[in-house]
Amino acid sequence: MKNLKIAIQKSGRLNEKSVQLLKNCGLDFENYKSSLITTVNNFNLEILFLRDDDIPGYVAQGIADLGIVGENVIDESQEKVIYLQRLGFGRCTLKIGIPKDSDIKDLQDLQGKAIATTYPNILQEFLAEHNLSAEIQQISGSVEIAPGLGLSDAICDIVSTGGTLKSNGLKPFADVRRSEAILIGREGLAENPILCELLQRVQSVLRAKE
Ligand code: PRT
Ligand code: ZN
Hints:
26% helix; D-Maltodextrin-Binding Protein, domain 2; binds phosphoribosyl ATP; EC 2.4.2.17; amino-acid biosynthesis; binds zinc ion; glycosyltransferase
């Protein structure tokens, strides 16, 4: 049977738990840090190590069959993929943050304001849902320093402990969406026996954790 390919994050917050999940499923593989692909010795699976942002696109195009990635990244990519299983790790919330002394008091106050983010698509959707228009400043990182530099009135970024907001003189203002790591698949994979076996193993690992 043809091997399936699963894409996981190469390094970063989801890498270790993704690798651990696959190992807990009984999969035997070398976790080479330097190679981009590894073959599982005892299962019909190859593992691709990628930047998380590339995972939804690879899966949507069928270059990978499966992927493990944050919901925030899936949503922002706007790629069409199937949610197979919520994985319970990588939990965080995409939030709007504002300066501690901001005069922004309720959502309507965001009207016409400048908001810096690496998530322009999700933010645009959120604003539209609330009939707001704001100036979205798309930047590629270190979003939390934007208000202090005078680049924006607010930010929209991932928050987990809130420590980064706080240390940049910001406070959480509104929740945009929650996120956790998800096992995704390409379309047309539903009856695949390798996937069925893998999914059963993943689900029993998750049940054992409850
Ligand atoms: O290199 P690559 O592109 O693969 O990785 P990356 O740098 O884009 O992502 P990475 O590894 O930082 O995060 C991967 C995924 O983990 C994210 O897409 C989220 O789904 C999830 N996740 C969970 C988080 C966080 N928690 C998190 N705290 N992603 C980012 N953060 C950052 C956030 O951007 C902010 O700068 O941590 C900071 C805030 O953390 P606190 O604890 O100070 O609030
Ligand atoms: Zn990324």
